[in-house]
Specification:
Blueprint (H helix, E strand, L loop, with lengths): L2 E7 L2 E5 L3 E3 H4 E4 L2 H8 L2 E4 L7 E5 H11 L3 E6 L3 E7 L7 H26 L1 H13 L7 H19 L1 E2 L2 E2 L6 H20 L7
Parallel strand pairs: 1-7, 2-8
Antiparallel strand pairs: 1-4, 3-5, 6-8, 9-10
């Protein structure tokens, strides 16, 4: 019976500068216990200062190395064919002033967007007409409609984004998280194509 090495590449891996990347860092291995530990500790790549923030390690190169070393084993490469290694440069603490400025900028932008929307649809007049329709009386500021509307607007945003500060309301991902996931997948696909030295084009 032929001995088999099953190798599944990880989609991505977070590495630090000058780190030595071993096979266990970027792949899952299933084989006989006699060589599994040795394979896991096999050095695949060493990150250097000349590397950019992203390095692509192709499964074909790993397969070639394993076949040269363990020629008596049959190698089965399953799943993803490459791993994207993201190099974490020296982590710096985000400046509080910059974070505060960006937070205020986003807050003001969101508030302006909501105000412009209400101005375009003439929301005060809508509330006045709704008050007239329900009560038969004209009123400039029907607070019994405006206050619940304002509270409901905030609650609706919380439900839509599925978060209350760090607490998740339900197990389903929010639309923003889905968009970020799709964006990251597109970035990974682009990186795999352009940063892989084995790419045809």
């Amino acid at each position: 019976m032929a001995k088999t090495i099953y190798l599944r590449m990880k989609n991505s891996y977070e590495g630090s500068n000058l780190q030595t990347i071993k096979l266990k860092d970027i792949a899952f291995i299933a084989t006989t216990k006699a060589i599994e530990k040795e394979l896991n500790n096999t050095v695949i790549y060493r990150l250097s200062p000349k590397d950019s923030h992203v390095v692509v390690i192709d499964g074909f190169l790993i397969a070639k190395h394993i076949q040269n070393t363990y020629s008596e084993y049959d190698l089965q490469l399953i799943g993803p064919t490459q791993t994207i290694v993201r190099v974490n440069q020296h982590s710096q603490q985000k400046p509080i002033l910059l974070v505060t400025f960006v937070w205020l900028l986003l807050l003001i932008g969101m508030a302006m967007s909501i105000m412009h929307f209400h101005y375009d649809v003439n929301m005060p007049e809508v509330h006045q007409k709704l008050h007239l329709l329900l009560t038969g009386e004209e009123k400039t500021n029907p607070l019994w409609i405006q206050i619940p509307y304002s509270v409901g607007l905030g609650i609706g945003m919380i439900i839509f984004f599925n978060h209350w500060f760090k607490r998740r309301l339900t197990k389903e991902p929010s639309p923003l998280e889905v968009e970020l996931f799709n964006y990251q997948q597109n970035i990974d696909e682009y990186t795999s194509h352009h940063k892989n030295s084995l790419t045809d084009s």
